[in-house]
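Onboarding guide, step 5: your first structure request.
Type a short instruction followed by the sequence, for example:

Predict the 3D structure of this protein.
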Amino acid sequence: MKTKIFLSVMSLVAALFLSSFKENAANGQITAPLAEAKMNATTGYNIGDEATNFKLKNVDGKMVSLSDYPDAKGFIVIFTCNTCPFAVASEERIVALDREFKKKGYPVIAINPNNPKVQPDDTFELMQQKAEKAGFTFPYLYDESQTIYAKYGATKTPHVYVLQKQKGKNVVKYIGAIDDNVRNADAVKVRFAANAVNELLAGKEVSLKETKAIGCSVKQ
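The system replies with structure tokens like these:
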């Protein structure tokens, strides 16, 4: 008898839970585990994916697209910004990457994904000042609609994507950090992005395809 009562109570609890879940889901209030699964369904690119082309405004006012580089072998796409201390600490390293690899066919393309309404120091005008002051030798593009960083899946500034041209497609070969010490350039032991490009230039597969990007979160 007690077993039947217990099962009846458990059935009632389950029914109430299911009813509550359906009501919350209908109202857009999905429970945490399901919401997390939904977020993870669109996390941007994985290694081997084809990266989308884009057309974004550069600090010189001109529109820049990956298709503007017909002779490039690939790209070092870096999502960065004016303000994040990690991005600022990486500026000289980004310039160095462009200097090292542009002539070898892998130019740097930097993109600011931040919303200036959330981070006022990341306006286009201040991007122009930053590019001049830091001596950027590469395009510094404004993702005004915040659609490109979302497609790539960038979550930090800086966040690196090394692309290789393959049969007319820009294929993702490396995702992550510039190197193993974003805070201190003098303490760097492993240059993740540079190593990836050098391996591609040598006709090899990238040995370390992904690392954890460390930096400030993208301001939405």
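Each response can be followed by summary notes, for example: Strands lie at 55-58, 63-65, 74-79, 108-112, 140-142, 156-157, 159-166, 169-176, 216-217.
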